Recover the amino acids of this structure.
């Protein structure tokens, strides 16, 4: 194996406790490489739940520089079809039998050929139609905010460079890391597998069902909390929604393991108050920032939220040592070895990624993120509103699990909300939003809202894998309901389940099932 990890590096099944030492990792990686070579595999699509075997196959491809496209196990049929047609793999590996997209199967011979490592292998003789940029080792399909997902092409060297920079920034020898995000998520893949192994640490992995997940949705939080308690990890990676869960659980009597030393949180804007609450619960939280085009992590805080000032809590940290950042017309640009999108190679001279994120860089090198450039709402009054800011204020207490703000070219802001607690009435929810509004300028306040009876999700096509709403998709799905919130004759008393006069008006609506 060409990859160089310290002798203490190991992979562990968090449920069974079975551990693979470095020697055993090398043996398994070699076995996978021999099997892949026997099928002359040069382009692989990999669809499976998280497991130690998932990490071993991923490491085998990274080490041999074989192009790998890992995708979540919960992709919709439409998304799966899109990936297959884009990539045209010569080998498909999955943890369960599946139906190949008819259009893809018709293009050539696709057949089951083997079972290895608990996975089903399907060989294809479809001729690749789209060339990947030179040096592409991994393609990660971003959920995107509109349209079909794009395949971000990354080299093996760039992935390992980010992992090495994270080891330097976190500065924790032999960390014991528990993977909570799905392994196809680039952040967990690089920061949760490669970085801990490079630091000589132990990576603990459990399947989605053991983490309380059903597809992309967390349906049994008790399982996830119990796993954290059982494993006693030193490091975790969370999206804001999971951080809210840990904070809420702490307030209800759950005790965070004393073993925890570093919890990275990112993927979406995190409210300062939520970071403070997490720190007061004994959670060592460090905010970060990144995007797939920059090989995941771009910046990471060096200070625990409990030790940081209010100003520092608004910042996502210093840029990793191997990267450069500049601000162009308030947009963050990152100099990084981005190879391009699958099917559309980047111009070699364009070595700066225009992130689409609005922000600034402080004198000491910390990044401030204001919000997405394309998400900026410009009200009919001419006032600008960054929706991520308002959404973070709505989400920070944990009462709401999802909040998506709208109001572009409209006289006021409205929102699509999901509250998982059925005990909370519409009247109480309206009162809560009324209280939040008191801390916002009048132009940024939520005047009316839609309350969903089921959450938005990646499987439905309304959320990205890292917890960001697909605003254009949501706006299209709820176009009529959103338009009704602006009608002069709008009357909340005619809408089911709402009777509050203290807060904004609401309409209930189920999230559509786009599967």
């Amino acid at each position: 194996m060409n990859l160089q990890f310290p002798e203490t590096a190991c992979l562990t099944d968090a449920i069974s406790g079975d551990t693979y030492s470095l020697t055993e990792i090398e043996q398994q990686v070699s076995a996978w490489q021999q099997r892949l070579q026997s099928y002359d595999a040069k382009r692989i699509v990999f669809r499976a739940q998280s497991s130690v075997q998932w990490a071993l196959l991923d490491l085998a491809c990274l080490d041999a520089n074989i192009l790998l496209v890992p995708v979540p196990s919960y992709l919709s049929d439409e998304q799966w079809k899109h990936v297959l047609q884009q990539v045209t793999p010569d080998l498909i590996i999955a943890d369960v039998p599946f139906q190949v997209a008819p259009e893809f199967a018709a293009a050539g011979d696709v057949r089951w050929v083997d079972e290895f490592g608990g996975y089903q292998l399907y060989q294809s003789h479809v001729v690749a139609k789209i060339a990947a940029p030179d040096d592409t080792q991994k393609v990660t399909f971003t959920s995107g905010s509109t349209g079909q997902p794009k395949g971000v092409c990354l080299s093996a060297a760039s992935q390992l460079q980010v992992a090495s920079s994270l080891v330097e920034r976190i500065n924790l020898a032999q960390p014991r890391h528990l993977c909570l995000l799905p392994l196809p998520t680039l952040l967990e893949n690089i920061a949760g597998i490669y970085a801990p192994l490079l630091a000589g640490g132990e990576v603990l992995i459990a399947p989605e069902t053991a983490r309380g997940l059903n597809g992309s949705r967390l349906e049994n939080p008790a399982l996830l909390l119990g796993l954290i308690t059982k494993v006693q990890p030193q490091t975790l990676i969370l999206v804001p929604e999971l951080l809210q869960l840990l904070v809420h659980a702490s307030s209800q009597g759950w005790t965070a393991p004393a073993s925890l030393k570093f919890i990275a949180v990112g993927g979406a804007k995190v409210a300062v108050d939520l970071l403070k609450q997490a720190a007061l619960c004994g959670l060592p939280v460090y905010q970060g920032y990144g995007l797939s085009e920059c090989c995941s992590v771009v910046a990471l805080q060096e200070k625990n939220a409990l030790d940081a000032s209010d100003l520092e809590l608004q910042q996502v940290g210093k840029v990793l040592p191997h990267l450069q950042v500049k601000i162009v017309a308030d947009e963050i640009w990152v100099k990084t070895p981005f190879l391009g999108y699958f099917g559309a190679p980047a111009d070699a001279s364009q070595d700066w990624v225009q992130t689409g994120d609005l922000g600034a860089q402080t004198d000491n090198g910390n990044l401030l993120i204001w919000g997405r450039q394309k998400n900026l709402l410009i009200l009919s009054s001419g006032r600008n509103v960054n929706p991520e800011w308002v959404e973070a204020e709505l989400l920070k207490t944990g009462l709401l699990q999802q909040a998506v703000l709208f109001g572009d070219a409209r006289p006021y802001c409205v929102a699509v909300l999901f509250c998982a607690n059925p005990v909370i009435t519409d009247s109480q929810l309206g009162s809560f939003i009324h209280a939040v509004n008191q801390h916002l300028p009048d132009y940024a306040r939520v005047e009316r809202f839609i309350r969903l009876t089921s959450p938005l999700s990646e499987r439905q096509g309304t959320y990205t894998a890292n917890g960001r709403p697909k605003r254009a998709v949501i706006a299209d799905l709820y176009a009529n309901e959103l338009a009704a919130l602006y009608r002069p004759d709008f009357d909340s008393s005619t809408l089911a389940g709402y009777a509050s006069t203290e807060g904004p008006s609401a309409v209930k609506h189920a999230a559509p099932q786009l599967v």
Observations:
- Residues 22-38 form the longest helix (17 residues).
- Residues 34 and 346 are 33 Å apart (CA to CA).
- The chain has 14 helices and 30 strands.
- The domain at 1-295 is CATH 3.40.50.12780 (Rossmann fold).
